[in-house]
TrEMBL record:
Residues 288-362 form the Xylanolytic transcriptional activator regulatory domain. Residues 1-42, 357-377 are annotated as: Disordered. InterPro entries: Fungal_TF_Env_Response, XnlR_reg_dom. GO terms for biological process: DNA-templated transcription. The lineage of its organism: Eukaryota, Fungi, Dikarya, Ascomycota, Pezizomycotina. The keyword Nucleus applies. It holds the Pfam family Fungal_trans. This is C6 transcription factor.
């Protein structure tokens, strides 16, 4: 390498020195009275003023939005005594993915009046400007330390499903399951924005298969609900095992170590809704009433119970999705409370969120802020069916609070008024589906089908039954309540008619039959204990109303000549008995499929033997009922053994899984078949105790005549 110092053509090297400001520049920076510094200080003060004005404008917008709410959503003012003050308007913190409501009693409403940061910013010293970088670095270090400490303090647990992605079936099966969910369930329970989901779904099956945990959880729960309506019956058993695995994984994601990060997550609320729907449609998962309470609290914590018009910062997409999800949360919470016969933990005074707008999913875009006008109510859209069902929510909430409330008195006049409103709601639903039978959606992704009509009808009829049933029981002693008895009977017959197409062992091909076989709660429709017990009580009451002459045989009462009135009564009972026999046969066939829910079949079998004995003029003694129950249990045992469910344990995912296809539920027997090998069959055992109905047949029960036909129902 040549010596640079000997090259005459190169310029001499210069030593670099730190740049220094000239004396005038230093004086200008250090002199606060310099015009440049004064202008900069005035500009910073102006920026602080603008920030304060922006906050004031946001506060005024919130107050204006609250003042312009519809009349029915506003809280009635207190008495004008001169000391009343307006209620504090809640604050909503909303981002694209998360949302949290700060209620009226939150400390934030006091802290914001102090304006600590705002006042500090307007009077800040110039020396603070140089400390900005140091402050930012300290703040970042503190956040990093906080995350590290919290991570070290957290218990490290293994994922219940380490490879959730590997449990997914092939794409063709997933496509069918997703399609079944969106065609059967999504029109009634709006949870997902279809265009957004479809876009992520296509990316998920792309070459690189990028995915987020949030989307994967939503996908597996959609697949879980879709298994109920899957058409390939040979794969249903395997899919139910996978569905149980997916449910465990979603529950872990919501309540495990990641619970804190999912509490206010919009995707977390959607997964919670899908979990509740999965329990309703598959009978898998935890107690629906307990989990629905957590779902309700999650939704309220995110502010979904308040009118989104109160929060101007929300986009049109966010407002519409909040209204849809709140209607779904209310529906699931209400159904869980009614199905569990537990008090409803919310009333109509606790929320002011309006009904969803009549819009298609394509009318709202998560990336757009343009306002969209709702379509005419006569036009069928993706939300039309949800709106039809949600219109009766206030009425059904009132009924649920009434029937499971703590008040001892229940006015018959009020029941008649509410019953008339339920009848009107049923007529409105029927009119809607008649009007839409030939209509099609205008660009929508969902369709109105007969399944949706029958599902909503089942829902409304159950409230009719529960409203009148207390008076139906009293009608056996008091003829003033005969109308309640009539309405209960008619409602149950309509609900039972929805199971007419179910013809097992032929595999069910329509959505309603598939839901009746695999669902829980009101989704069991005509196969539920609510329907079967009410129909059998009506039949037994009719038989008990015959003249007491020592025998119930119509020919014996008239010297061998049948009484025409008795023949007419027998003919009127025949369709009801055939319906109960059909239900009993289908319940046994369901057990043969490997669903060990045997209480319904055992009770219906015992009640049918009771009714047939009464019709034949034979005393329905305890031995007869015991024999009927014992025979039904033997059939259940044979059906379960033949199904092979007891010999096919669930395949574990790294030792995951409690066992067979379905978890134990309250509908299972509370006894072991081995317990039936008594040395003495006259041990005073009550057949009802075998079905886990302790006390139902005791003499202290005023309605024990259901099991004791010799007692006087009018006593």
């Amino acid at each position: 390498m040549a010596d640079r110092s000997k090259d005459p053509d190169r310029p001499p090297l210069k030593r670099r020195r730190p740049a220094k400001a000239c004396e005038p520049c230093r004086n200008r920076k250090e002199n606060p009275a310099h015009p440049g510094n004064q202008l900069r200080f005035q500009l910073e003060q102006s920026q602080d003023t603008i920030l304060r004005l922006n906050r004031s404008i946001e506060e005024l917008e919130r107050r204006l939005a609250a003042a312009s709410l519809p009349e029915q959503t506003q809280v009635p003012p207190g008495p004008a005594d001169g000391s009343s003050i307006p209620k504090i308007i809640p604050r909503l913190r909303a981002t694209r993915d998360k949302t949290k409501l700060y209620g009226q009693s939150h400390w934030l409403h006091t802290a914001e009046k102090l304006q600590v940061i705002g006042e500090f910013g307007s009077s800040i010293e110039l020396s603070w400007k140089g400390a900005k970088a140091e402050f930012g670095e300290t703040f970042r270090n503190l956040k990093s330390l906080r995350r590290t400490i919290k991570a070290n303090q957290s218990v490290r647990l293994n994922e219940p499903v380490p490879d959730l992605l590997g449990t997914l079936p092939e794409k063709s099966v997933c496509d069918e399951l997703v399609g079944a969910y969106f065609s059967a369930v999504e029109p009634v329970y709006k949870v997902i924005h279809y265009p957004s989901f479809a876009s992520e779904y296509d990316k998920f099956w792309g070459e690189e298969r990028p995915h987020s945990t949030r989307f994967l959880m939503k996908l597996v729960m959609v697949l879980t609900v879709g298994t109920t309506f899957y058409s390939r019956h040979e794969d249903v058993g395997r899919l139910r095992q996978l569905a149980q695995t997916w449910i465990y994984s979603a529950q872990w994601w919501l309540t495990g170590p990641s619970a804190r990060s999912t509490n206010n997550l919009f995707d977390g609320l959607q997964v919670s809704c899908l979990l509740a729907i999965a329990h309703l449609t598959t009978s898998l998962g935890n107690s629906d009433w307990i989990s629905s309470g957590a779902l309700l609290h999650r939704a309220i914590g995110m502010g979904l119970h308040r009118d989104p018009g109160m929060f101007p910062m929300l986009s049109i997409f966010q407002k519409e999705m909040r209204k849809r999800l709140w209607a779904t949360v209310l529906e699931l919470t209400l159904q869980a409370a009614v199905d569990s016969a537990m008090p409803l933990l919310i009333s109509s005074d606790d929320f002011d969120t309006p009904l969803p707008s009549n819009l298609n999913d394509e009318d709202i875009d998560s990336q757009s802020s343009n306002a969209t006008r709702a379509r005419p109510k006569e036009e069928l859209t993706d939300t039309s069916i949800q709106i039809v069902l949600a219109k009766s929510l206030p009425l059904r909430i009132t009924i649920a609070k009434l029937i499971n409330g703590i008040r001892e008195t229940f006015a018959y006049e009020r029941a008649l008024k509410l019953g008339a409103e339920i009848v009107g709601a049923c007529h409105d639903v029927a009119a809607f589906f008649r009007a839409q039978s030939a209509a099609t959606t205008q660009g929508g992704s969902l369709r109105s089908t007969d399944f949706h009509r029958r599902l909503i009808d089942l829902c409304l009829r159950k409230y009719m039954l529960l409203l009148y049933r207390p008076f139906m029981i009293q009608a056996r002693r008091d003829a003033r309540f005969y109308f309640a008895r009539k309405m209960c009977f008619e409602s149950c017959m309509v609900m039972a008619s929805h199971a007419r197409d179910l013809n097992l062992p032929t595999p069910p091909s329509d959505y309603m039959s598939q839901l009746l076989v695999r669902g829980s709660g009101f989704a069991r429709g005509g196969l539920s204990l609510d329907v079967t017990t009410t129909l059998t009580m009506e039949l037994i009451t009719q038989l008990e109303e015959k003249p007491a002459s020592g025998t119930l045989d119509p020919a014996a009462l008239t010297g061998g000549i049948p009484d025409p009135l008795d023949e007419m009564a027998r003919a009127s009972r025949a369709p009801v008995i055939r319906s109960l026999e059909h239900i009993s046969d289908q319940l046994l066939q369901i057990i043969s499929l490997g669903y060990p829910s045997m209480k319904r079949y055992g009770l219906v079998a015992a009640l049918l033997s009771h009714i047939k004995a009464m019709e034949a003029g034979q005393p329905a003694h305890q031995g007869l009922k015991f024999s009927a129950i014992a025979e039904s249990m033997k059939k259940c045992q044979d059906a379960l053994v033949a199904s092979g469910a007891a010999k096919t344990p669930q395949e574990s995912v790294d030792t995951l899984g409690p066992g067979p296809l379905t978890t134990a539920s309250s509908d299972d027997f509370e006894f072991n078949f081995a317990d039936l090998t008594f040395p003495d069959t006259t041990m005073g055992l009550d057949p009802l105790s075998l079905l886990y109905f302790p006390g139902l047949g005791e003499a202290s029960n005023p309605d024990s005549a259901l099991w004791n036909p010799t007692s006087d129902p009018k006593a």
